[in-house]
Amino acid sequence: MEVLSKLMKDRFAMICIAFLVIVVLAGIFAPWIAPHSPIDVNVKEKLAGISTSYPLGADQLGRCIFSRLLYGVRTTVFIAFITMAVTVLIGTVLGAIAGVFRGKIDEIIMRVCDIFMSFPSEVMILAIIGMMGPGITNIVIASIIAKWAWYTRMIRSIVLKYTDKNYVQFARVSGFSRWHIFKKHIMPNTAGEIAVLATLDIGSVILMISALSFLGLGVQAPTPEWGMMLNEAKNVMIIRPELMLPPGIAILFVVAAFNFLGDSLQGAFNVKHGTKRR
Amino acid sequence: MKLLEVKNISIYDTQTKNGIIKDISFALEHHRNLGIVGESGSGKSMMIKGILRLMAPGMNASGAAYFEGEDMLKMSAKAIQNIRARHISMIPQDPMSAFDPLDTVGKQMMETLCENLKISKKEAKQISLHELERVGIKEASQVLRKYPHQLSGGMLQRCMIAIAAASKPDIIIADEPTTALDAITQSDVIATFQRLHTQLGTTFIFISHDLGVIQQLAQDVLVMKDGKLVEYGGTGDVFHHSKNEYTKYLVDTRIKLTRSFEKLMREESCDA
Amino acid sequence: MLEVKSVYKSYSKTGISFRRGRVPVLDDVSFQINTGEWAALVGESGSGKSTLSRLVLGLEKADSGSLLLEGKDAAVWMKENRGQMSVVFQDYITSANPAFKVKDIIHESWKTAGGNKSIHETVESLMRKVGLPLEIKNRYPHELSGGQLQRVCIARAISTSPRFLVLDEAVSSLDVPVQAQILQLLHQLKAELDLTCLFIAHDLQTVAYLCDQIIFLNDGKIVEQIETKYLANAQSAYAKRLLEAVIRFKV
After folding, report:
1. Nearest to B111 by CA among B101, B125, B97
2. Quick one: pLDDT at residue A278?
3. What is the fold of C1-81+195-251?
4. B11 pairs with which residues across the strands?
5. pLDDT digits (tens, 9 = 90+) for B151-161
6. Is B60 helix (H, G, I), strand (E, B) or coil?
7. Is C16's Cβ below 8 Å from some Cβ in B?
8. What's the pLDDT score for residue C203?
9. What's the start-to-end Cα distance of chain B, in Å?
10. Residues of chain A falling short of pLDDT 70
11. C48-85 as b/e, with b when 16 or more CB fall inside 10 Å?
12. Where are the domains of chain B?
């Protein structure tokens, strides 16, 4: 795999991957690593400083911040993964159908996308949560609804780029089925670009989930979540401003790592796409 | 004095130290067009870019290229710019992508002329019209108002030639001037070059992989292979009495390509 | 073999325009190619020749008129005779999937036609047939020269032993020496294989080398169809202009 060896040589990309793997592992093994339960209230230790049993101190309810941060990976990062996976899946299926079959079905899918894309996505998410009520499942559903249309469009245009290639035309002339052409020529070539797209965008999904939880619309207390931890730290900002640092820095690093990784992947696949330009 | 004298030019990649052009020397005399022949990848365009100092960063040229007694490879950036603006023009390979699609051909032409010749817009328009007519465009003022995509490849190529000729340069370099064109347009463009050569006395350097084009346009020819000079001399000598294996190979393959066609045409003259 | 009967094709105008205008590309095009014959379709860019080739290949549909292969509707024929039509394109760079090795490119298409010999042997015999050195069989397209890649495309095209072959400007973007080599190869294949061929080109010299018939297409209309041996006596103004425009190489 040329892409893989290219990526291996990119030291910065490897650091990002290593960091993200550690974060994910920490989330998975949180029950074994965390020194305390993330939701146990212990008023005696309220706003405790950094110590061996509280590596990052405790919050205003005496809960271990380090433990909450670890369990927060499970909510923040994993929800972002699920959202992304479902969105990309919908986008790939619909985009591929539109791009491969063209004609009427393409028209229908694209017009529906147009309608969905004519709402600003933030407003749409707020409206959906307003209707369905706050909660983890609802943010996932809301962000999928807000994003699928954009992905369908992007993936359709990536697929179209490859259906114009002569080797696809040749395969059509020699009588291969559309499924065979899609599987052999289009899917392997588009997979890389879709991966880049998803990696670059997962950071923004994390930010969105955190923002919604910060506003109290997402994850509900007492489930630990980074955005909500920020919100809680905000209440004691005057006396203990440093409580905002752990969740804030966690969000910053994870989002930054995904974005850098996306850039490196893009370089490795050597793809360029029009949107998402800095 | 020679118009342009290139001595032992070599071009290499500064990082890998790989030589791309290896020790080539040639001279351009007044009114004798030079054809540079070779397969793609032989370094034809690269050599010209090296002489005009238009190479991609990371490339370095050694040797010397004297224009009016001065070495272009050692000149200040300003001096070389002046030479490129007034004395040596270049017609790029692909006329379609040489124009900015967002602006009219006329505006781009006039901008280039104003910049290169330091003249007013009005004068630039006068010259543009005149030059376009010279290269055989009849409705010049209409062509000036068109956007690149509204014109055919041959038309754009002629606009490019007009721009190159407008500054009355001593040398015009044309990089594969006919490759992207259709047959009829190709022969029109060749006729345009021939007319400019006799009317203006401009000396041309043509880069091409088609020996037929070179045979019609150039008096001298330089054959290149893998960055090296293979043969250099008068067109007739090189094409008909070559001793070199590679040149012979180029000529033979070209003859093979035309043989059936020539035979068909000869049969006609026998019938008549 | 191929019969094209009064085919029309137009495209809708692009851009902002309230009139739904259509630009005609092919206007009442009719011609036929007999079995075993190699016919050339000669025209300039914008003459509609690439559209015509797409129609013949079944990649697009004509507005009206019919395309018949051995008397059957082309689409039906192609379904019944999978792999019997093949094509070599001008742009060899996008003709091969960059992720495939040479041997995989060549043997991709005969799964439809079925082959008894082992894949390995057949690939090698095809490579020998088109004059490719066997050691490049594990290389990727970007590691080949233009001429080699076009040979790979030809090997792929003949791998299903097709009966009808479309060569869409198959030599136009190659250097002259390589053009000559490829034409020689095609000439040899013409003698060896039982093929009917539509050769789309703009250069009369290459056409004269290879084809029995020449069809001149200008502005979407067929202006003349002539046997190559009578080329010098072409009557239409367009054919005459093309003949004059040929850049000849004098010996």
Report:
1. B125
2. 29
3. Rossmann fold (3.40.50)
4. B21, B61
5. 888 888 889 99
6. strand
7. no
8. 85
9. 50
10. 1-2, 270-278
11. bbbbbbbbbbbeeebeebebbbbeeebeebbeebebbb
12. 4-94+170-266
Per the prediction, chain C carries an average pLDDT of 86
Residues paired with B224 in a beta bridge: B229
Q: Do C215 and C43 touch, CB atoms closer than 8 A?
A: no
Mutate to test the interface with C, among B187, B211, B264 (most CBs of C within 10 A): B264
Average pLDDT over every residue of C219-244: 89
Record: contact A174-C112, CB cut-off 8 A: yes
User: For C60, which DSSP code?
Assistant: S
Cβ neighbours for A42, distance < 8 A, ≥ 6 positions apart? A36, A58, A61, A62, A63
A232, A252, A247: which is closest to A56 by C-alpha?
A247
Give residue A123's pLDDT.
Answer: 86
**How confident is the model over C187-192, as a mean pLDDT?**
91
The pLDDT score that the predictor gives to residue A24 is 92
Domain range B4-94+170-266, its CATH number among 3.40.50.2000, 3.40.50.300, 2.20.25.90, 2.60.40.1120: 3.40.50.300
Instruction: Check C59 against A172: CB less than 8 A apart.
Output: yes
Instruction: Calculate how close chain A gets to C84, using CA atoms only, in Å.
Output: 7
Residue in B152, B184, B258 nearest the CB of C249: B258
Sign of CA dihedral B21, B26, B29, B35: negative
Letter for the amino acid at A97?
Answer: I
Q: Is A265 helix (H, G, I), strand (E, B) or coil?
A: helix
Which chain C residues in 197-236 lie under 8 Å from chain B, judged by CB atoms? 202-206, 208-209, 228-229, 231-233
Query: Number of Cβ pairs closer than 8 Å across B and C?
Result: 102
Residue A169: list chain C partners with CB under 8 A: 57, 59, 87, 89
Phi-psi region of B118 (alpha: psi -120 to 50; beta: other; left: phi over 0): left
pLDDT over 90 (residue C167): yes
Identify which of B140, B146, B148 has the alpha carbon closest to the alpha carbon of residue B100: B148
Is cis: bond before B95, omega within 30 of 0? no
Where do the structural domains in chain A lie, given as residue ranges? 71-269
Cβ neighbours of C229 in B, within 8 Å = 264, 267
Give the one of C177, C202, C228 whose C-beta lies nearest to B253's C-beta: C177
Q: The pTM is what?
A: 0.81
Residues of chain C in contact with residue A176, where contact means CB-CB under 8 angstroms, are: 109, 112
Q: Measured between CB atoms, which of A165, A169, A175 is closest to C83?
A: A175
Contact residues of A toward C, CB < 8 A: 165-167, 169-176, 184-185, 188-189
Closest-CA distance of chain C to residue A196, Å: 18
B216: contact with C, CB 8 A cutoff: yes
Q: What is the pLDDT of residue B24?
A: 92
Interface probe for C, chosen from B147, B248, B257, B270 (most Cβ of C below 10 Å), is B257
B215 touching C (Cβ < 8 Å): yes
Residue B199: per-residue pLDDT: 87
Tens digit of pLDDT for each residue in B86-136? Answer: 899 999 887 778 888 888 999 998 988 898 888 888 889 999 998 898 888
* Fold that domain A71-269 belongs to in CATH: MetI-like fold (1.10.3720)
